[in-house]
Fold:
Amino acid sequence: MNEVVRPNRIEVHDRDALATARAVLDACADAKAMGEAVTAAVARNAQWRGADCINLLAPEAPTSPGVRALLAAEIGTRAAEGHIGPVNRWFAGTRHIDEVEALCVELLKQHFRCAYADHRMCASMVGNAVVYTALTQPGDVVMTAAQPIGGHSSNRLDGPAGAMGRKIVDIPFDPEELVVDIDLFRRSAPLVAPKLVALGLSMTLFPQPVAEMKKVISEWGGRLFFDAAHQLGLVGGRQFQDPLAEGADIMTGSAGKTFSGPQSGIIVWDDPDITEPVTTAVFPVWAATHQVNRVAALALATAEAIAFGDALQAQIVKNAQALAKALQERGIPMLGAHKGFTTTHQAIADVRKYGRGLKAAQTLERANLIVNKNLLPSDRKEDWDFPGGLRIGTIEVTRFGMKEREMEAIAEMIARVIVRGEKPEDVRNDAVALRHSFPTLYYCFEHGLPPA
Ligand SMILES: *Cc1c(COP(=O)(O)O)cnc(C)c1O
Structure:
């Protein structure tokens, strides 16, 4: 106990934020007031981020009223570890939980046009750990994308792949085209003969040469793993390449990014030979009590995607293209401009001449325009806390019914802040007004499609 109050303790979290929280708790008369302090902070976020901001974070999506309600459902208080079915479960009483989970799995198979799906990952990061567990051994070579080109820590040395002792070799990329350099891959991959190639990109503008890569690694029986954390909704809604159809052995994805469901992870695949290793890497290795409320919400979000996914994802891409074009026209250099800017939900701005990504994102935040700092392919290791770019996503604005015209208005607000140096506080009223004029969440059973 005494450890906790030692003055010189080491913190990785921001010390001031923790000190502020301690002061808040110290000022509370009793534990009930402490609980109220938590609820009040949640309410402040709901007002600011939920009602008054233009949220342009690419890995973020609002969920429908039905999906949100299921996240608070009674079923989320039940324990149900194991595989679906009465004999597979440790606990009795899971009859209806089995129903819900089986519906979720079958909905996922239908939507992603695949033979197998798993629904039990509380995060896509965990799905990636499942794939490494199922398809590789410690010491195996895995080729993955480096962070400045869009790679994610889950597939790198500092994430589960590295922590589990996989040896990481970079997939070669063309930094201008923002796609795998397939000629270089043809030459470099055979030198290390990776057991697995993990193609996962948090910065993702264009399709990747999945079929060509699979052909190369098939020579030694290597497998291709497409980490579609960001693109999952686009794949399901047929607005992006279909990695499984093009030859990927397995695909993971985040349910809370373009897929626009509850934050969590899914895995889909077709090959019966990997069904046993993958399913048993989920349980008992990486999931136990896997939040059945979240599974129910995921199932409903998948039904929504079956009904509205094609229309939603098509508009998300059109909006990203319109936003990128409008930003470029206002003096902000955009990646991929020479090939139509983007084919996804993302637009990537090069803001090196506007104070770099951290400062630009923090200034835009004061105008209630929420984006994230992002590495550019040219960023060096020492730039990582202060990257040169911004990543801007169109999932949420699209779900609220905004179209190309509003993207033009948003680009204008962004340019007023970072190109023309207007005070962000002067732009904020316009951002709030735009957000308030789009109060309804669409592409869901409650509200259908937005007006034409
Ligand atoms: C976001 C992301 C992940 C992690 O997904 P979570 O659902 O946040 O755990 C994994 N890989 C890539 C490429 C990502 O962008």
Q: What stands out?
A: The longest strand covers residues 116-121. The two ends are 61 Å apart (CA to CA).
